[in-house]
Amino acid sequence: MENTDKSITKNLILGLQHLLAMYSGDILVPLLVGGALHFSTQQMTYLVSMDIFMCGIATLLQLKRTPWTGIAMPVVLGCAVEYVAPLQNIGNNFGWSYMYGGIIAAGIFIMLISGPFAKLRRFFPPVVTGSLITLIGFTLIPVAFQNLGGGNASAKSFGAPVNLVLGFTTALIIIVINIWGRGFFKQISILVGILAGTILAIVLGTVGFAPVSAANWFQLPIPFYFGIPKFEWSSIATMILAALTCMIESTGVYYALADVTGQKLSTDDMKRGYRSEGLAAILGGIFNTFPYSTFSQNVGIVQLSGIKKLRPVYYSAGLLLVLGLIPKFGAIATLIPSSVLGGAMLVMFGMVGAQGIKMLAAIEMNNKNLLIMAVSIGLGLGVTTQPALFQFLPAELQTILGNGMVVGSFTAVILNIFLNNTSIKNQVEEEQ
């Protein structure tokens, strides 16, 4: 009984680590969208709480393998930032109902194309997947640094000494634990770093407890809380473009997790993974939250902790459900300063990028493969750091071309087809 209790405690702590790693990135979306659409305090409270709750539902759909859904790998789902601009645009120009109609339509679209999209895996040999995973990590480093500086790059306090101290201290603690830590303590290095950084922030007087006192004790999910979804073709098309962007990013995360966990990823696995995200988006539209996709920062946790089992992520999903139903508890997690999360993200995203480099190191370094890596990674990082490059193009094209993951992925796939066309044929033969 004692060993069982210890196992539950360990898995609960590991699950909390996964939750804290994704929490900031996820609640950022409802805050940005709700703020742009001028939601009231009550509406914003519901939006944040139900978004957290639906993250738990979406994660469970992906964890549990069924004949139709579930990739069954240690992954947490949340709303991707790629959806922010399209949702803001639809909500402001057409209204909330059309925004949720677009989310439901995008979810149906994802489920319908999951089969054909999964078959594209033959176009993702190691040179492509390695470049893609490298991009996942390195294109997110600017996000880590933005958080490390305070979260809002336009704020006067951005980069303030206290933010730098909190961020780099958190990163240093995580690094030190991974070098000299042992056993379970080493496995929860991210969690320890975040907690230590938050305690330091409290000591320095930078944390306010007002969000906790203002939050409600209980909130049930209510279908169509903001209104019945309505459908309009341009809103649907915009959401589908954003969904395709996230599917490409999810593909890279699936491959990264498969590499970290040592699992062989089949076409059926990919189908179930995409279908889970599609179903989660449909539920998000019904409960007036968001579409959901795989969070890449949690790959870094799996790599750092060495824990590749599903059980801790089940606990994380359970915690998300509880936090969503009890907003006051969920508000406690909002006390974590952005700079502390930025320090943790710096290590996590760097580890994802390093995983991609590890994959690339195993391939033949001939001129063709080097060209694929150089151009795809270069373009992906370039548009990530300078998204204004496409500011004069239509908004729909900006959604696609402004995403470094999409640009880098398409470039790697297309260059591989032209430069290594025989390798694709060999790849298909090996799979058969």
UniProtKB/TrEMBL annotation:
Annotated Gene Ontology cellular component terms: plasma membrane
Q: Which Pfam families match?
A: Xan_ur_permease (PF00860)
Transmembrane regions listed in the UniProt entry = 12-37, 43-61, 68-85, 97-115, 127-148, 160-181, 188-213, 233-257, 313-336, 342-363, 370-393, 399-419
Give the primary localization class.
membrane
Membrane topology per the entry is:
Multi-pass membrane protein
Which UniProt keywords are listed?
Answer: Cell membrane, Membrane, Transmembrane, Transmembrane helix, Transport
Q: Where in the cell is it found?
A: Cell membrane
InterPro entries listed in its UniProt record? NCS2 (IPR006043), UacT-like (IPR017588), Xan_ur_permease (IPR006042)
A GO molecular-function annotation = xanthine transmembrane transporter activity
* Sequence similarity: Belongs to the nucleobase:cation symporter-2 (NCS2) (TC 2.A.40) family.
The name this protein goes by in its record: Xanthine permease
